[in-house]
Design a protein that fits this description.
Length: 268
Amino acid sequence: MRRLLPVTDPTPVPAPVPGPQSGTAAAHEWSLDELAEAYAYPPPAAGDAPWLRANMVSSLDGAAQHEGRSQAISNQTDMRIFGTLRALADVVVVGAETVRLEGYRPARAREAFAERRAAAGQGPAPAIAVVSASLDLDFSLPLFTAPLVPTLVITGAGAPADRVGAARRAGVEVVIAGDASAVDPARAVRELAALGFRRLLTEGGPRMLGQFVAAGVLDELCLTLSPMLTSGDAQRIVGGPGLAVPERFALASLLEEAGFLFARYLRI
């Protein structure tokens, strides 16, 4: 069964958040247009700050991965939403560890979203921006050598000079977003916005997402709750030091399909 579950209107919310009009027992698969409307970024306005959303999946017992990868706790609808969120973004921001574990490849152009992206002034596909302090990355991989849109790496001013040179020789754009070797999450968001990337999507990993949360720059969390138990010691969706005071997000929409819950939360 696919359905849009009722959600009490959160107050305040920064933008309207429509959901697919699936009724209580829709039999059809949500179309990509319905999903694109349900997950649309807030309408841009002059002077608006960039909007950073995260997309993560968690098992019932809080695991963000099974045996190092998220695919095992995902399903087909989750992957359709994953693809839709990418197709709406200007740039996908991802940590180097996740690039290595998940075998990241360049984002691809999708015909179903071509008209929508053109109307929004976007290129054919989102760029991928890899966050790495050490730049310990294999720049011979397709992510760096064969992207439709040039891949970026975000690092600090203290990154190893030889690795910065290797990245640039591979045609990768190096973005400096920190005075030392570490990346400042708030500065990374500002630097991407200065390059014209205002619709930001991060897919983790948990440690990097924790840094965005700690810096107070995460605007939205799209969370898939998988009806699976994994046990073990897998990471949660957010890692790193705890916040001094928990930050409250408001539930904006909730979809259900085959026991999977697809929630959208907005920072209050």
